[in-house]
Design brief:
By secondary structure, this protein is α/β, with parallel strands linked by helices. It contains 11 helices and 14 strands.
């Protein structure tokens, strides 16, 4: 993986910490940093990479300082889970063209995930999600993709790349998206035809109000996700002042809970935080919000390490139930209290206690139906 350094600019600690000395408990003292030498990644669980490419937002400024602004706040937070070894490999270089930058991001994510690393991307415009997905497409991997965004970026009329990239990602050929989830969209920003398109493709989508009211129901959705893209527009302005488009949306606490759920996923291998503009931020509050979301993602990674495989039945409670003519087995982890539901092909999918409650009343859980429709 040493060849990755060709795509990266090192991070100079003096540029992000205001000459402060980190205490022994802070992340800044423990993250292996690509400053003078590229870090050794063999024993690393989580790899952080900054993205500075911003041309997809439709402006002429090709680079953004978002990644380093987030780092400044992240490194100050305390490191609770030393079992999760972390390295920061620097910022992915911008190319001459936007496509060159996509290629660099794709190469970095592809190499790291192929070597079993979880990749965390910070900074850049939301269209860089295309490059994140391209890392899996390059390896011909079927993936479950989730996006958390107030908007559904399927607008064919809008020439701005960050507003239309989903069309290419979801319908381009060859396509390796096994399933797509869109969380926290706000209806008044979304043309009904866009939702019809998602529904015809058998994809799932959840309004911001539904996500807030049924937050625990989002855990199984994210547990089944291989790749997550989080646009800061999903968080309401009062909790993320750099988001000047949405007075409503997720609270900061809800955003942190969702990223914790993502970290707990056994499937997830990359997550990207996009759309942050440090020039629009107030007192770096949005950077602090994102850094705390990253902290909760690390917390989720730690909790994932405590979970058993569903094949190890001694660590699960088993519940047999019948709805309709379907005899189904539900599993509940004794360690984390999370639930799984068996499908007719005997595979297990993540589910919630509400799904078990429905099945116990002889009602078919919608999650079961949606998965059956796609099979």
């Amino acid at each position: 993986m040493d060849q990755l350094s060709d795509f990266l600019d090192p991070v100079l600690l003096r540029e992000i910490n205001d000459d402060e000395l980190y205490t022994n408990g802070q992340l800044g003292r423990h993250i292996q940093l690509h400053e003078e030498e590229f870090p050794e990644l063999d024993n690393i669980t989580l790899v952080i990479a900054g993205i500075t490419e911003n041309r997809g937002n439709g402006n002429f400024q090709s680079t953004t300082k978002a990644a380093n602004t987030i780092r400044k706040q992240l490194y100050k937070l305390h490191y609770w889970h030393t079992e999760v070894a972390i390295a920061d490999i620097g910022n992915i270089k911008c190319g001459v063209s936007l496509q060159d930058s996509y290629a660099a991001i794709r190469s970095v994510v592809s190499t790291l995930t192929a070597n079993g690393k979880t990749v965390l991307l910070i900074g850049g415009s939301h269209d860089n999600t295309l490059a994140q997905y391209a890392a899996y497409k390059e390896r011909e991997m079927q993936v479950h993709v989730s996006c958390i965004d107030a908007f559904v970026d399927l607008s064919q009329e809008n020439p701005v790349r960050s507003k239309n990239f989903l069309m290419d990602m979801l319908t381009g050929e060859p396509n390796f998206i096994a399933h797509y989830n869109h969380l926290a969209f706000q209806s008044y920003f979304v043309h009904p035809n866009m939702l019809e398109t998602l529904d015809k493709l058998r994809f799932d989508f959840y309004r911001a109000g539904h996500v807030s009211a049924s937050l625990e129901e989002m855990e199984p959705v994210l547990r089944n996700t291989d790749m997550l893209s989080f646009d800061i527009s999903a968080i309401k302005y009062s909790d993320a002042p750099a988001n000047k488009e949405c007075p409503n949306g997720l609270t900061g606490v809800e955003a942190c809970t969702l990223t914790k759920f993502a970290g707990m996923s056994n499937n997830l291998s990359s997550i990207g935080f996009y759309g942050y503009d440090p020039e629009a931020d107030q007192d770096d509050l949005t950077a602090k919000q994102i850094s705390q979301m990253v902290w909760y993602f690390i917390d989720g990674l730690y909790k994932k390490l405590q979970e058993s495989d569903v094949k190890d039945r001694d660590n699960f409670n088993e519940y047999h139930t019948l709805f309709g003519e379907v005899d189904t087995l539900f599993l509940q982890s004794k360690r984390t209290q999370r639930w799984w539901m068996q499908m007719p092909d005997e595979s297990f999918i993540p589910c919630s206690p509400a799904d078990y409650a429905l099945a116990s009343r002889n009602e078919i859980p919608e999650r079961w139906l949606r998965v059956q429709e796609r099979n």
